[in-house]
Amino acid sequence: MARALLLTASALLCLMLGADALRCRLCSSLHPGMPCMPQKMSCNSHPPKEACLSITISYGDQVEQKMLGCIQADNKKCGLTWDDPKTGRHAEYKCCSSGDHCNE
Known about the structure:
Layout: H1 2-18, E1 22-25, E2 27-29, E3 42-45, E4 50-59, E5 62-72, E6 81-84, E7 89-96
Antiparallel strand pairs: 1-3, 2-5, 4-5, 4-7, 6-7
């Protein structure tokens, strides 16, 4: 009986601790127009210390690569845009914590 009660209490604690976790998509698209791979993976972040991340690398108006995942919310890359004058490529880092899979 005590073992069952301890197991139930542990399960409830895990559910309560995981309730504030934010689920973020975790994948990479290496070719334009190709789906993000692996398609159904995710990572958990815990706001306000962590957030979901989306990195988009483009050339002109064409998206070349997209990466999704989790990141420390205070990371200096959040909100960063970068242009490489030699190659003409543009990178944009976006962080969000508005809801599950907000980085899709």
